[in-house]
Amino acid sequence: MTAPAAISAGAPALSVRDLRKTYDNRVEALKGVSLDVMPGDFFALLGPNGAGKSTLIGIVSSLVNLSQGEVSIFGVDLLRDREQAMRLIGLVPQEINFNMFEKPVDILVNYAGFYGVPRAEALRRAEVELRRAHLWEKANVMSRTLSGGMKRRLMIARAMMTAPRLLILDEPSAGVDIEIRRGMWKTLKEINAAGTTIILTTHYLEEAESLCRNVAIIDRGRIVEQGPMRELLAKLDVEGFLLDIDGGVPVSLPAIEGTTITVADDHTLDIEMPRAMDLNRVFAALDLHGIRVRSMRTKSNRLEELFVRLTGDNAAQPQGTTA
User: Which residue has the higher pLDDT, 263 or 309?
Assistant: First the structure.
């Protein structure tokens, strides 16, 4: 088996400098992107369709040739030492691309074999990864019989068979329901806690807010914002809440200066208000209007608001949800 790539002490897990990509049809997909992802981070790369996310991930994973710029993985230059750099990366594509007529354990062992992992070691790793993905009981069934969520977790387990230092997930939860996504979140958190750096591209903005510590937002081939998730969310001066009320929604709603109140359903009000506003003022106004609040929950849409604000009205509407 090829010797592992040499790691530069203190180097970012991923370093991109002035990355540019122009396709043959003259479409300029990347226009000088620069960013660093530090070891151990759980990093979100967000942007509307056509923003450049897939091109950036394609270049980092050697599926797309860059036009200009520099890329290094833990200090290993991608252009000068591509093979060694690739040994540090695990990629989980959006599409399910394993043989549905193979058993999960065989899919993992065969994949490891492509990278020179001896069979005995591959079998050991397969058990570790299948257990972590909560798939060990399904190790010897036909893969086509797995549920959608199980197939997604199998993709992650396969990528981990080469013990990558950097795991890249390109919209891994696209098209699956919230229950399946939350199951995947648990697996990814375990992988990250064990020391693997993770880069996640996603359209589900509550997913990034739940999982990621740092974020970069790309639009029209440029990074428009990057930094710690908390700092970016703190820039928003509006908060959203869902209020569960006793009885039905009244015919008329109170007008509270600085707030927007709409009806979410027969027993729920959707309210947006300045972060600095005292909630007691809102409750008092509702009480005077005969509206009794039974419970309240925060809407998980803060990152979506930031996304829309930064990328502008022409950006594709992201698929964020409220919870």
Answer: 263
